[in-house]
Structures are given as structure tokens and as C-alpha cells.
Amino acid sequence: MNFTPKRVLENPHDIKPYPTVEKYMTKQLIVFKPSQNIEEAMEVLVEKKISGAPVVNEDGDLVGMLSEKDCLHVILESRYLNFPASQGLVKDYMTKTVASISADKDVVEVAMIFENSSFRRYPIVKRGKLIGQVSRRDILRAAVDLKSTTW
To answer: What rounded mean pLDDT belongs to the chain?
Structure first.
């Protein structure tokens, strides 16, 4: 009897025991452009009932995130500095330093990242390009799917 596997892996260390975050991330994203009007972006956040969205340039590179907190600055400037919000652009208010997660991270690695962070979601990048977003809920969904597997 031969118990040799039919398929031999070149590097068995490349196998991840858990699926990558790419399987559970949201791929259909609302994104903003840096040159987009800030009031329009705020209207989208309210209309779509989301608390933030990635900002990408023309090449699809992640260049920032626009959050509800960022938008509060618009209100404060408009009120206290007499700055007309209608003239502001997303790039003027977005957070430029963005923590992101690589698409090849497995769901357990991402769960650890969330556990040690106050963020509720992270953009997912592959070769510098935004390809999706993962939330805590996405990782919980992965846990339910993997409940028969030992974490």
C-alpha cells in the first residue's frame, strides 16, 4: 500500500491552516477621491449609513481614510473659523496615515490585530492597491464558518 500524497508541495511552510482575510473581506466598497468635495463625501457617509471610507487616487492606491471623526473638523471649521465647508476637499480632512492589512494575512492573524486595536475595520491591500476592507464582523463570520476547527 502506498500512502504517499499525490500532490507534493514545493514549500509546505507556505500553507496557512486558516483562510486568508481575502475570503471574508468586503470587496464592493464606497471609496472617495482626494479631490472630491468634502460636503458630498459627508452626504455619502450619512446616506449609506457608514462611519468611514477609504480614499484612493486615480491609480487605485490607498492614500487615506475619511471617517466621521475627520468630518467633525469640517463642522468645527465652518462654525468657529467661518470657513465655508463647501470649498473643502476630502484630501484636506482625511487621515493620511492609514493602517492596512495585507491580503495574505489569515483570519487568526487579523483577529489578533483587531484584539490589539481600537479600529473596527481595516483596508485590505495587495501590492499597494486597495482590494477590499475587513471588519470585526467579517472576522466573526469567519469564526462561525470555522467553528469545527480549533482556533
So the answer is: 87
Read off the CATH number of the domain in which 74 is found: 3.10.580.10
* pLDDT tens per residue, range 26-76: 999 999 999 999 999 999 999 999 999 999 999 999 999 999 999 998 888
The DSSP code for 20 is B
61 within 8 A of 67, measured Cβ to Cβ: no
At 128, is the pLDDT very low, low, confident or very high (cuts 50, 70, 90)? confident
Give the list of residues 6+ apart from residue 151 with CB closer than 8 angstroms, or none.
108, 143
The answer to whether 53 and 94 are in contact (CB under 8 A) is no
- Structural domain total, the chain: 1
Neighbours of 72 (CB within 10 A): 11
Residue 112 belongs to some domain of the structure: yes
User: Domain of 58?
Assistant: 18-145
Question: What's the rounded Cα separation, in Å, for the pair 120 and 43?
Answer: 21
pTM: 0.77
143: which 3 cell numbers? 469564526
